[in-house]
Amino acid sequence: MSEEKTGLIVGADGQTRCFWPGTLPDYLEYHDNEWGHPVSDDHRLFEKICLEGFQSGLSWLTILRKRENFREAFDGFDFERVSRFTETDVDRLLQNAGIVRHGGKIRSTINNAQRAIELCEQEGSLARYFWRHEPQPNERPDPVTYQALVANPKTEMSTRISKDLKKRGWSFVGPTTIYAFMQAMGLVNDHIEGCFCRAPLEEKRKAFKRPV
Predict the structure, then answer these.
(1) How large is the average pLDDT for residues 169-192?
(2) What is the pTM of this model?
(3) Residue 30 catalytic?
(4) Which of 3, 20, 29, 30 is labelled catalytic?
(5) From CA 126, how far away is CA 55, in angstroms rounded?
């Protein structure tokens, strides 16, 4: 079958992997060693959901290449610290050429930091909240195919999480944003069937201790 139908490519290293990183070294590194690995660290979860918000209207590669700048600008995405940012900080960040200078998204990150503190008080941690929304196996396509991913940029579960977070006051957390977050943080394994990462990642997910 062709690349267009399988969603798989064979790299210069001979490995078969998902199509989307192409041949870009930094994107390949992200695909092979980070994307889809289960995460339970609250700061990393907060970072990802914020960066997905910044990605809105842009490519993830753009955000990935600015990620270290974002981490420096937002104090490592320590939401306790970010929650105390003021309009002075917003003005400072709007002058930072190393990040995406979008006032609404910057203010959203500060707002979401405040909401993250509230969520931790209510749920125990961000990890506990998000991992209790992990889809059941029967809610997932089997096998995961290129066609299924293209057809489902959001799911019933991502829509449910999005609605709940919005009720709690979060912003820039639409269903598509949440689904991308779920894919990246390992709540689902969306490496396409045939990608060399899929099977070992599934084993890692099985061994992962859910924080619930």
Answers:
(1) 96
(2) 0.94
(3) yes
(4) 30
(5) 21
Classify the phi-psi angles of 124: left when phi > 0, otherwise alpha if psi is within -120 to 50, otherwise beta. left
Q: Per the residue annotation, which of 35, 52, 131, 146 is the catalytic one?
A: 52
Of 116, 127, 126, 117, which Cα lies nearest the Cα of 171? 116
Model pLDDT for residues 81-110, shown as the tens digit of each residue = 999 999 999 999 999 999 999 999 999 999
Residue 26 has pLDDT above 60, yes or no: yes
Beta bridge partners of 10: 16
pLDDT for residue 1: 41
Q: How far apart are CA 177 and CA 209, in angstroms?
A: 25
Q: Closest Cα partner for 178 from 129, 123, 106?
A: 129
Domains, the chain, ranges and CATH? 3-132+145-207 (1.10.340.30)
Is 131 considered catalytic here? no
Q: What does the CA dihedral 209, 77, 56, 211 come to, rounded to 10 degrees?
A: 10
Q: Which residues contact 60 (CB under 8 A, 6 or more apart)?
A: 180
* 60 labelled catalytic: yes
Pick from 84, 92, 131, 130: nearest CA to 110? 84
